[in-house]
Predict the structure.
Amino acid sequence: MDTIIILDFGSQYTQLIARKIREQNVYCEIHPFNKIPTLTEDVKGVVFSGSPYSCNAADAPVPDMSNIKGKLPLLAVCYGAQYLAKWGGGRVQQSKIREYGRANLNYIDGSNPLMKGVPMGSQVWMSHGDTIEVLPEGYKTICSTENVKYAGYQIEGEQTYAIQFHPEVHHSLDGNTLLHNFVVDICHCRQDWTPASFIETTVKELRERVGGDKVVLGLSGGVDSTVAAVLLNKAIGHQLHCIFVDNGLLRKNEFEGVLESYKDMGLNVKGVDAKERFYSVLAGVTEPEKKRKAIGKTFIDVFDAEAKLITDAKWLGQGTIYPDVIESSSVKGPSQTIKSHHNVGGLPDYMKLKLVEPLRSLFKDEVRRVGRQLGIKDELIGRHPFPGPGLAIRILSDVTPEKVHILQEVDHIFIQGLRDAGLYDKVWQAGAMLLPVQSVGVMGDERTYESVVALRAVESVDGMTADWSHLPYDFMAKVSNEIINRVKGVNRVCYDISSKPPATIEWE
Ligand code: XMP
């Protein structure tokens, strides 16, 4: 498969470059700048990412370009562009004027292959503190903005291109054209990275790797585990044994509904009712991290006991996706582990199964596309993310079956309401929180003293940052009425209008 290698210098946008290249149906991989892989014949070009560093800093990241520059097509972005300019004898210094945000190209070398089809005035997105003041000899300017003369350049006689703006960010309106020019016209990559080709090669590889062995896989109802299971099923059929655990913390009717869909898809799946076990370990636990640990451990125990019933299983299938495996370039040390709590579950040592992870090379949007190509229903593919510990971390106190029931009803009205109003797909994630607060209300002639719930709906790309969804007031009024009228035990509904950061999506 024709491949582009992206060397990561620690930019927040590196994964975005990869996703944009993949959108051109060209395969690419991200590697830390200081761990360059073997550049096999499949590698048709290299991209240098941006970086939080200044190339003048004493500890600035320095790549080994000996097998790259002048040998393979190279596109250096932002820091990459500045680094190459400095390396060639140019001058890079701190910018005197702000070079952050939108700018427009007021000079374009239309004959340059990288700039083909990029119109004069094209809006680009700048985000850098340094700027190139002097370009080395033999470096030719290919585009400029009013404030940035050397917005882009090519090293003459080489297929080495550089741009100081970010083509991968959607504010760079012709960024896709530019990336297309690089990967297709300059690197001559075939555009054969498609869901269909991925499925074909993966199924073949899975058959070879797994042979006649049995694979065990835990389904969660989420997109990743579902697509992984359907792919494995296509490859090895009923050698795949799926386990779907009801932890009692799922959405209303979710366990039954999803289990039915799994069976319809021909999966060999066993549903395990472990509700009581989860409720008993959660009894009296209020601290969020303790809840997560208790749920994680119980899940492993239940899963492990079930897996042991499948004699001679040799493999554990998992829905791991690319963002989980990309090695951080650790320019600034390992990225902070704010989200360590997300790694609930995992593989107990004593299971000693080999791992098979068919989605390891895919981004989330690619998993969805593969899922659609596999014929999985939109209802499953387009689902909002849902946390592993489920409703337990949306009940801001100890978890009881009664509270779960109340929250399931509230959540159901909200989510069904979003679907009915055509808003479900506009929202990235939505749910309800049961607050440990009772408030006074009045119903008929009676004074009530009941629970408060908070609704949360956010827009996001990857869950790392999020903004609250500006849902229509009419919609919220309808949902609120319905919740208070129908769910016994709730007399007040609030809407969470905090963005992340500084708030998080979940309340616990
Ligand atoms: P936060 O609350 O950190 O959530 O803004 C970001 C995304 O992660 C999900 N989330 C979890 N997922 N186990 C999971 O599998 C967890 O413990 C967990 N906590 C949060 C959250 O639903 C959102 O999509």
In short: Residues 153 and 361 are 32 Å apart (CA to CA). Residues 400-495 form a domain with the GMP Synthetase; Chain A, domain 3 fold (CATH 3.30.300.10). The pocket of xanthosine-5'-monophosphate is lined by residues 292, 339, 341-342, 344, 385, 387-389, 429, 463, 500, 504-506 (CB under 6 Å).
